[in-house]
Amino acid sequence: MGKHLAICGGEPVRTAEFPRWPIFGKPEEEALLRVLHSGKWGRLDGNEVEAFERRFAEYHNVRYAVAVVNGTVSLRIALLAAGIQAGDEVIVPPYTFLATASCVLEANATPIFVDLEPDTYNIDPAAIERAITPRTRAIIPVHLAGLPADMDAIMAIARRHNLIVIEDAAHAHGAEYKGRRVGSIGHAASFSFQSSKNLCSGEGGIILTGDERLYDRCKSMHNCGRVPGGAWYEHHVICGNYRLSEFQGALLNAQFDRFDEQAKHREEMGRYLHQRLAKVPGVTPQNRDRYPVRHGYHLFVFRYEASVYGVPRSAFIKALAAEGVPAAEGYVIPLHKQRLFVDKAFGPYTACLQARPDLDFGKLSLPVCDRASAGEGAWLYQALLLGSKADMDDIARAFEKIYEHRDELSEASRQSRVL
Ligand SMILES: Cc1ncc(COP(=O)(O)O)c(C=O)c1O
Q1: Is 63 an annotated catalytic residue?
Q2: First vs last Cα of the chain: how many Å apart?
Q3: How would DSSP label each residue in 153-207?
Q4: Can you tell me the distance from the alpha carbon of 139 to that of 60, in angstroms, rounded to the nearest whole number?
Q5: Does ligand 1 have an atom closer than 6 angstroms to the CB of 72?
Q6: Burial zone of 101 (CB within 10 Å; 0-12 exposed, 13-18 middle, 19+ buried)
Q7: pLDDT for res 417
Q8: CA-to-CA distance for 28 and 23, rounded, in angstroms?
Q9: DSSP 3-state assignment of 209?
Q10: How far apart are CA 196 and CA 272, in angstroms?
């Protein structure tokens, strides 16, 4: 262990790079060229997207899939297809990417934010139950970081109150809840293939559902409201062109060949890193022991206790980076505190304002989420978990070193020398 922290001029724990993301090679090159030379570049011309939909649905044990341009549109289409409309309330977590809640506004409905479980940062089923009103129509649980939300509890609430559940699985490709793949548990699920995601094509998304009627509506909506057997210029429902291109389909097919092995590796390394970091005082990895899971590990989330280190999260993250371990502060502004919600800057989507003029998002108190965003939550990105066990040891050593030199860190912070 070095004598000084790297941020104070000492030797870093490591200087080697971690694996870069995305990982690609000849198969991706060949797949893209195959589409190029075929001249069939759109999904209605070729069969790459359709083949990928089948493979992805099968992998998640779901009957139907509709690939779309991103994981924002997939959420919105799933809501519209489920019949969500003006005045309806949809319960969402606040510690997530904007799309989980903005899709509700764009379905002309009202997002209702509820708090998280303190040890997982997933939506808290008890808080969902408390937020239900006669207008509640749906719940969008996010499997945060790839850790499945408590779907048994959520589905039981949904059954009791006749609600639709749309899983936001943007972080959770291949994750499992009690032996079931996420995306197969709710009425529909949404995944993202944006560049950072564990399966990616630059941009992209997909809706999974086992419900034939929902599928038919999603399929029609992503294709300008067209219907099977209808004429090209015949449109039955409002929506648009949200079709994925064949280039993206081909890339996804090639990336999917690599996916399961990568997912298993992330799970193995994530589990190992979890055990190592759980022993470091003031650092608590996301609890993965509430029920049996295969963690999707889009992120490795941990809770940071500033009181143990005497410095704020930002200083700890900088110290980690100096030791050669890139980390992030995560969602530092919870959704209900984003200007968009505080100012109700909802553009043309005003149904929410009319239905619930009493809502004052900025005044919402969601203490677990507020704490996570303000200074407790922190992340490592998935590509680190594609490294070797020796890489995980380096990560753990960086955490341990900072703990052992916490006085040096807090002193440096006090003197504002480097932090
Ligand atoms: C939890 C969550 N939901 C939805 C999305 C939206 O996906 P996309 O970026 O593909 O629109 C993301 C992606 O960043 C996400 O992290």
Answers
A1: no
A2: 22
A3: HHHHHHHHHT-EEEEE-TT-TT-EETTEETTSSSSEEEEE--TTSSS-SSS-EEE
A4: 20
A5: yes
A6: buried
A7: 64
A8: 10
A9: strand
A10: 23
248 lines ligand 1 (CB under 6 A): no
The answer to whether the CB of 117 is under 6 A from ligand 1 is: no
Q: What is the dihedral of CA 110, 115, 120, 124, to 10 degrees?
A: -80
* Cβ–Cβ under 8 Å, residues 57 and 65: yes
Strands 377-381 and 299-304: antiparallel
Q: How far is the CA of 72 from the centre of ligand 1 (A)?
A: 6
Token duo for residue 183: 């995306």
Tokens 């409309």 map to which residue?
85
Position 330, amino acid:
G
- Within 13 A of 357's CA, how many CA atoms are on the CB side? 1
Angle of helix 246-277 versus helix 389-404 axis, rounded to 10: 50
**CA distance linking residue 92 with residue 291, whole number of Å:** 22
The pLDDT score that the predictor gives to residue 418 is: 61
Residue 72, φ and ψ in degrees, nearest 5: -85, -50
Question: Ligand 1: distance of its center to the CA of 338 in Å?
Answer: 16
Give pLDDT, residue 416.
Answer: 78
Ligand 1 nearest-atom number relative to CA 205: 10
Q: How far apart are CA 190 and CA 168, in angstroms?
A: 5
pLDDT digits (tens, 9 = 90+) for 76-115: 999 999 999 999 999 999 999 999 999 999 999 999 999 9
Cα separations (Å) of 189 from 90, 218, 362?
15, 12, 29
State if residue 100 touches ligand 1 by the CB under 6 angstroms criterion: yes
Residues of the chain with pLDDT under 70: 1-2, 417-419
Active site residue 233: yes
Catalogue the E-assigned strands of 5-121: 64-68, 89-92, 110-113
Q: Which residue in 226, 288, 295, 303 is the catalytic one?
A: 226
120 lines ligand 1 (CB under 6 A): no
The H or E element that residue 283 is part of is: strand 283-285
Task: Ligand 1, residue 70: give the atom nearest the CA.
Answer: 10
Q: Is 87 left (phi over 0), alpha (psi -120 to 50) or beta?
A: left
Picking from 137, 134, 140, the residue whose alpha carbon sits closest to that of residue 114 is 140
